[in-house]
């Protein structure tokens, strides 16, 4: 107790205008140089498009990869985002590029991998309003994440946003999409 490995736990919850209900990062896996960062958004509607951009070297140092529509409703079911974080690490970018998603991560992820952004994009969360090149400020020690877009512009974007068609319109997954709550509430069915 007198000489802990770390003064904090390994997990940090971040909140701010990008994730008012919170998002989660494995702080212990983030390079110290990235604990406080200002990064340019690279926006992808789904994991596959993000992985394609990573493998085709379209992601650069200082970018934050935004993967949306992978939350409880959008996924549906919050698929694990280990592939894009592994790809970033494999490309040697895990100390220079962050990733935020409304999907989830396993304990094996490393780098500034921020998941469970709530509310999710499919429910109209702010992650749905991020545009290519927007600046995002991350302050892990302060537990903060901020989309640097003024409130009036965010409201304008919100008024123009239309929810995507659900990936499933019949069967159990359609029922799940209609009934699942936010990840901040456990992604349980109402």
Compact overview of the structure:
Helix content is 19%, strand content 24%. The protein has 190 residues and is of the alpha/beta class.
Task: Describe the overall structure.
By secondary structure, the chain is of the alpha/beta class. Helices cover 19% and strands 24% of the residues. The chain contains 4 helices and 8 strands, in the order E-E-E-H-E-H-E-E-E-E-H-H. The protein has helices spanning 47-55, 82-90, 151-160, 171-179, and strands at 12-16, 19-25, 36-44, 63-67, 98-101, 113-118, 135-139, 144-147. It has an 8-stranded mixed beta sheet. Strand 4, helix 2 and strand 5 form a beta-alpha-beta unit. The protein is globular and about 55 Å long. The N and C termini lie far apart (42 Å). The model has no long low-confidence stretch (mean pLDDT 94).
Layout: helices, strands, pairs:
Blueprint: E1 12-16, E2 19-25, E3 36-44, H1 47-55, E4 63-67, H2 82-90, E5 98-101, E6 113-118, E7 135-139, E8 144-147, H3 151-160, H4 171-179
Helix pairs in contact: 1-2
The overall pLDDT average reads 94
Q: Could you say which overall geometry the principal axes of the C-alpha atoms support?
A: globular
Number of helices: 4
- Could you give the order of the helices and strands? EEEHEHEEEEHH
Radius of gyration: 16 Å
Residue runs with pLDDT of under 50 for 5 or more positions:
none
Q: How much helix, percentage-wise, in residues? A: 10-25%
* Major β-sheet profile: 8 strands, mixed
| Number of strand segments | 8
Beta-strand share of residues: 15-25%
Strand order of the largest sheet: 1-2-6-5-4-3-7-8
């Amino acid at each position: 107790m007198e000489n802990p490995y770390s003064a904090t736990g390994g997990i940090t919850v971040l909140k701010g205008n990008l994730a008012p209900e919170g998002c989660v990062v494995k702080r212990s896996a983030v390079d110290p140089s990235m604990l406080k960062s200002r990064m340019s958004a690279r926006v992808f509607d789904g994991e596959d498009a993000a992985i394609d951009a990573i493998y085709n070297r379209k992601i650069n140092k200082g970018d934050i990869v935004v993967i949306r529509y992978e939350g409880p409703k959008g996924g549906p079911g919050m698929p694990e985002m280990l592939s894009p974080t592994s790809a970033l690490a494999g490309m040697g970018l895990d100390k220079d590029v962050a990733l935020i998603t409304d999907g989830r991560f396993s304990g094996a992820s490393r780098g500034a991998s921020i998941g469970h952004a709530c509310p999710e994009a499919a429910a109209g969360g702010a992650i749905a309003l991020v545009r290519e090149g927007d600046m995002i400020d991350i302050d892990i020690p302060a537990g903060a994440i901020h989309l640097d877009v003024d409130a009036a512009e965010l409201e304008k974007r919100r008024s123009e946003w239309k929810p995507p068609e659900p990936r499933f319109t019949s069967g159990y997954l359609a029922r799940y999409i209609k009934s699942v709550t936010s990840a901040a509430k456990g992604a349980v069915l109402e």
